[in-house]
Amino acid sequence: MTKHRLRGPTAGLVTALTAVAVALAVALAGCGSDASGSSAAGSGSGTIQIWEGWTGAEAKTFAHMVSQYEASHPGQKVESLYVNNDNTLQKVLTAVRGGSTPDIAYLYGSWAPNVAEIPQVVNLTQVVKKPGVNWSDFWTGERAVATVNGKVIGIPALVDNLAVVYNKTLFAKAHLPVPGPNWTWAQFVADAKKLTVASTKQFGTAYVTPGSEDTVWHWEALLWEAGGSLLTADNKKAAFDSAAGLASLETLRTMAVTDKSMYLDPADSAYANLFNSGKIGMLVTGPWDLSAFPNVKYGVQVMPSYAGTSGGHQTISGPDNWVIFNNGATQVTNAEQFLLWLTAPAQVKYFSLQTGDLPTRASVADQASVASRMNTALPGVGTFVSNLAEVKQARPQITQYPKISQILGTMIVSVLLGQSQPQAALASAAQQVNAALAG
Amino acid sequence: MAVSVARAHQRGRPGALRRAVGSEHFSGWAFVTPGVVIILLFGAVPIIWSAVMSFQKNNLLSPSTPFVGTANYRQMLHDPIVVQAIKHTLIYTALFVPGTMIVGLFLAVAMNRKIRFISFYRTAAYATMAISTISEAIVFIWLFDPSYGVVNYFFSLIGLPQQQFLNSPSEALYVIVAMTIWGWTGFSVVIYLAALQGIPQTLLEAASIDGAGPWRTFRRITLPLLSPASLFLAVWLTINALQLFDEVYLSTQGGPLNATTVLVYYLYNQAFQQFNFGYASAIAYFLFLVIIVVTVIQFRVGKRLTYYRS
After folding, report:
1. How far is B246 from chain A (nearest CA, A)?
2. What's the mean per-residue pLDDT of chain A?
3. CATH number of A172's domain
4. Among B279, B244, B126, B251, which Cα is nearest to B188's?
5. At what angle do helices B150-157 and B133-143 cross, to 10 degrees?
6. Across the interface, do A263 and B147 touch by the CB < 8 Å criterion?
7. Closest alpha carbon within chain A to B60
8. Are A200 and A223 members of one domain?
9. Interchain proximity A1–B47, CB inside 8 Å
10. Which residues of B touch A115 (CB under 8 A)?
11. Out of B44, B138, B272, closest to residue A269 by CB
């Protein structure tokens, strides 16, 4: 309901125009196929179009890199169009229908299984095997998200991961030692309780509870740390209704319901401000939030582990992809050439140093100078860089994932709000997930 | 147009073409054609296309769009979230429409007089319409924050228990109602103010000479004369209420636990998060039908209750 888009009753109009519209629709269908035909023919002009959603320093750096590319590759032009990342898939869908897809688009990794269904998406499986690409130099989590059913559909564009950002001042005030690299969830829970001060409305930690994927992936990290997995290896059945699943939900429940040490953020919008105001002791979050904390002295530590499990301190990553669309052989070749250049180690290093985004390649992250220079520019980023090695698995790459995510979101929120017990919530969610996978 | 011209030729009536081109009809159509084409392109074509999609299994991604008959519509009957979404939409509409009208009427009556700074008050009342929905949502999220919000602070001052608001499945929808009533009040204030200024002073004077007090004048003279404005507001606000989306998207994303999932939010979720465009189109068509039925009823009932001065 937008106030700026007042619309009156359209019922009468529709009836009146239906007949004419049918005729017009037929005519338009003709136009549509014409357009796609001409664009598929490809012009070979050496101009490729790329849709990206960079802003601020990222946008400046990207524009600079594009001009560098054009200078070093005579005859090649890269036209970049800013599209808000949240809307790119919507826009691509329209473009696919209209036969005017860009040559390259930046698409969220979580869309990959669905993106793979678009016939115009170029299969890059052979491309990434070319000499010099060094595919295994990209992080495991990235490669997993760029691959759908064994087919590579994208090249990693951005990577992040979750770690714990904590307020050093609040730890000192509570006379607590700051978290160490070997810490456990039991310690996290105990610290959160001690960092909670009801009188000043200070919370030990926070959790986002809109029930969206943001709610879900935070929990998935806990599940993996507890040694569990989301689905069976063949992605056919739910596997999270397990001891590990129970342990992970119990951890959240203890903080949210029993200790009340967890601030629940229903709109996914308040936690960063609260942390920056010194109202929250610890946050499980990613590198993108660090620049929002100029007012507090913070430290970053890897995710806690569960004592006695094999999960270790692993974390979760949400990588995004560059995807190529087929607009004719010449365009595809030019697009591949540009992407391989853009994601080569030298460019990855330059982009990370300029923007503070984590390096998408292990060889870049391993250069001590890169991590330390990034950490100087934005304290704490260094831990996120080394934490990339703790990304051991990816979310299931299946088209049903959005549905599963929704079921899990409801499960987690119902436990956090004290509406259901972990065991019952797990069982009910597992049943729904199995139904979604079967359907 | 072209068809009728061709037919005229077949029947062998010379001069028909010239007559047609020279007629007022032709120039009339020539003027409106650009507008009509645009409306067809961006209005009617999507409406028809989504009707077709509602009978398909369509994710807009893959080229295969099998025809599934009424399966999408039948799925709605068995989808518990659709039932919840309908319930939430109706509760929301039932509170939002009268709420906005009553608050708007109250403010309009209060501001329909010559006092100092009246332009300022009127501008302030309308400002809520000019403020973007996103800023409105952010302000309300903070006002109603369970721990740091001003509303809970006032509750504690007057000894009321602290509420969870957007974190509570039983309260979140009412916060959205409050948020949108605030946002839309300016609209109903403007409509009512305009209507109030159209009420002839002579009628009000006559009533007071006849000995009617202010309340009676309001009940017997002002309210009936405002009825066309009320009908307009009721229809307009209802259509918008049934299409509630922005505030939900920006504040709760349908949560907690689907407590604020209304029909349009759910169809957005099905279309753009789950890629079930066929199913989403079916929901859209169901909503379209509901809106038509409700609007027709409102006009029927409204006609009887509305007083139009001739």
Report:
1. 6
2. 89
3. 3.40.190.10
4. B126
5. 30
6. yes
7. A93
8. yes
9. no
10. 61
11. B138
The arithmetic mean of pLDDT across residues A235-255, rounded, is 97
Q: Which of A297, A256, A302, A259 has the alpha carbon at shortest distance from A278?
A: A297
Q: What is the pLDDT of residue B64?
A: 82
Same domain, A289 and A340: no
Question: Does residue A325 lie in a domain region?
Answer: yes
Query: Are A191 and A272 members of one domain?
Result: yes
User: Residue A225: which of A285, A165, A191, A184 has the closest Cα?
Assistant: A184
Nearest to A264 among B43, B167, B274 (CB): B167
Among A147-156, A235-244, B25-34, the range scoring the smallest mean pLDDT is B25-34
Instruction: Judge: B252–A17 Cβ closer than 8 Å, yes or no.
Output: no
Contact A225, A305 (CB under 8 A): yes
Q: What is the mean pLDDT of residues B198-217?
A: 89
Q: pLDDT band at residue B25, thresholds of 50, 70 and 90? A: confident
Q: Has residue A341 been placed in a domain?
A: yes
Indicate yes or no: CB of A417 within 8 angstroms of CB of B169: yes
- Asked if A103 and A143 sit in the same domain, the reply is yes
Query: What residues does A298 pair with on adjacent strands?
Result: A167
This prediction's pTM? 0.84
Domain count along chain A: 2
The DSSP 8-state label assigned to residue A73 in this structure reads S
Q: Give the per-residue pLDDT at B241.
A: 95
Minimum-distance CB partner of A410 among B133, B235, B257: B257
Residue A401 included in any domain: yes
Contact status, residue A89 vs residue A107, Cβ threshold 8 Å: yes
State pLDDT tens for residues A17-57. 344 444 444 444 444 333 333 333 334 458 999 999 999 99
pLDDT of the residue at B13: 57
Identify the CA nearest to B57 among candidates B46, B72, B47. B72
Q: Chain B residues with CB inside 8 Å of A274's CB?
A: 148
ω into residue B80 within 30 of 0, thus cis? Answer: no
Q: Give the burial class of A368: count Cβ atoms within 10 A of its Cβ; 0-12 exposed, 13-18 middle, 19 or more buried.
A: exposed
The domain over range B71-305 is classified in CATH as 1.10.3720.10:
yes
Q: Both A432 and A414 in a single domain?
A: yes
For residues A170 and A256, state if they share a domain: yes
For residue B15 the two structure tokens come to 């001069």
Chain A residue numbers with beta carbons less than 8 Å from the beta carbon of B240 are: 1, 6
Say what the pLDDT of residue B118 is: 87
Domain boundaries, given as residue ranges, for chain B: 2-53, 71-305
Same domain? For A418 and A293 the reply is yes
Question: Same domain for A195 and A223?
Answer: yes
Instruction: Kindly tell me the sign of the dihedral angle through the C-alpha atoms of A290, A294, A299, A304.
Output: negative
Residue A80 sits in which domain range? 45-153+318-390
